[in-house]
Description:
Elements: H1 2-27, H2 33-41, H3 50-56, H4 65-77, H5 92-127, H6 137-144, H7 148-159, H8 182-218, H9 222-229, H10 234-259, H11 261-264, H12 266-271, H13 277-286, H14 290-318
Helix pairs in contact: 1-14, 5-8, 5-10, 5-14, 6-8, 7-8, 8-10, 9-10, 10-14, 13-14
Amino acid sequence: MSYLLKRIAFYLFTAWAAITINFFIPRLIPGDPVQSLITRMRGQITSDAVQSLYVLFGLNKGDSLVSQYVKYWGQLLRGDLGVSFTFFPSQVGEVIGQSLPWTLALVGLTTVIGFLIGTALGTLAGWRRGSWMDAVIPVTTFLSSIPYFWLGLIAIALFTGPDSVLPAAGGFDPGVVPSWTGGFIGSALLHGILPAVTILISCMSGWILSMRNMMVTVASEDYVTVAHAKGLPERRVMVRYAARNALLPNVSGFALSLGFIVGGTLLVEIVFSYPGLGYQLFQAVGTKDYPLMQGIFLIITLSVLLANFVADLAYMLLDPRTRREG
């Protein structure tokens, strides 16, 4: 229990530090986002409303950074992420709420599937080293070294065009109203095929390589030799003895990949113009949208911390040595 409490305290402190950095970094970017907003509105905002905008976005020049920081924490505790510059006058929470499901559905699902398939294939490749499966390892090494966005560009060049049914950009067909209907779901699935396959190929290759190498190392351990000497079935030795211990390093990597789902595939969403959170972050940086950047960074930070906390719990279940008392 003391180990768990220490980890919770560590994650709370890390969350505070990350939120603090999240507040100050956007304000160090040169430029005035309110003036940029006024320029984009092309005279629709009167000079009398300028000061109100500074107050609305928490950038009142009469307040010090410390005062703005305290107000920012007050907003967070109320669940208020502020108003977006880019999508003014929409709330940041609304913008994130519209984009987050797209990212979770695309990147989250493909990351989980890639981890499961890659781990299973890596387990077999490591356990049966020297077989024909070793010939696949150079291919997986090559694929895992290629960035997501480069695979996306190759996929667009090869599989899209006038004669192809696969779209090159967007999340659904123009004119289709987002709703839980067969037409919209079918259109969304069709638009998600190329981005999903791009992410799946790259991440699955990495899991195969790492799990295979860990299985080769673990297979020579004494407890695996003893399990063989006891006459246990080979499948049980592979799964319960070798794979269980070889999986531990991959658990941390999987936790980090889950945490970075929100922003880790930014370039993929840009390449495919996919309406996810990474694409919104790209737009927010271009327009110096402090509230939206802070909201997205907050989601990324909390996702990483939550994923690592789940990884710690998984470690406690998989490896009894981590269950320390006192």
